[in-house]
Design a protein that fits this description.
Length: about 230
């Protein structure tokens, strides 16, 4: 969470400066809350561009439009039209450009609401779920890497039948939904997950009694990531 700590540090420093400057009358037409929200939303949009997360990027722009609708002359479009446009654009752009380049031997599965529970194995795995609910079990004797993408749905993934020969990485992109991970408690887990208008919860703690190391990367935007150590 180093990136989040850096942002929070800068955010509170800017907050202190804004409070002082506002009392001096230098910013008579802009409220303190609007300035603070602008700083946060600009960071959010920048972070969305860096991670190619269209939901994070476009909703940040939408909220900026809502805050400054009067100066921009778009009061007739706020708030619901702007938010709906951000939602539909995020979905469309994610479908067109959101797919990441996958490994040569990866497995790609797109889930929908009619999909049933099943198991998949491999060294490099890519799972995608849009507007649905699914449970998946990863079974592999040499698990190396997985990319889990969940948009407006519920995804549950079990890793207790996967074997790591050294180190493995799981990248999670969770947008407007919930991703639940069941991870063996014997593994050493390096949690580098981040969140924007979302939540990351860990239940239990990894013991690190085996030589397997799992790195958790990625983030959640307007959704939750739940981690259970079993």
């Amino acid at each position: 969470m180093k990136k989040q700590k850096i942002f929070l540090g800068i955010f509170f420093i800017v907050m202190a400066l804004v409070v002082i400057v506002s009392k001096l009358g230098i910013l008579p037409y802009v409220g303190v809350f609007s300035i603070l929200a602008t700083v946060f939303l600009i960071w959010m949009a920048t972070d969305g561009v860096r991670h190619r997360n269209f939901y994070e990027m476009l909703f940040a722009v939408a909220f900026l439009g809502i805050i400054y609708d009067k100066p921009l002359g778009i009061e007739a479009l706020t708030p619901w039209t702007v938010l709906a446009a951000a939602l539909f654009l995020s979905i469309g752009l994610s479908l067109l450009f959101g797919g990441k380049k996958k490994q040569k031997h990866s497995i790609e599965i797109e889930w929908d609401s009619d999909s049933s529970n099943c198991s998949f194995g491999g060294q490099h795995i890519y799972y995608k779920n849009n507007f649905g609910s699914a449970i998946r079990y990863i079974q592999s004797d040499h698990f190396c890497k997985a990319h889990l993408e969940n948009n407006f749905g519920s995804m549950t993934v079990y890793f207790d039948n996967a074997i790591i020969q050294g180190e493995a990485t799981v990248k999670v992109d969770n947008n407007f939904g919930e991703t639940v991970l069941y991870i063996p408690k014997e593994w050493t887990v390096q949690n580098e997950l981040d969140h924007v208008f979302g939540n990351i919860s860990e239940h239990g703690s990894p013991l690190g009694t085996s030589s397997a190391v799992l790195r958790l990367k990625g983030d959640t935007s307007f959704g939750n990531i739940e981690i259970f150590y079993v």
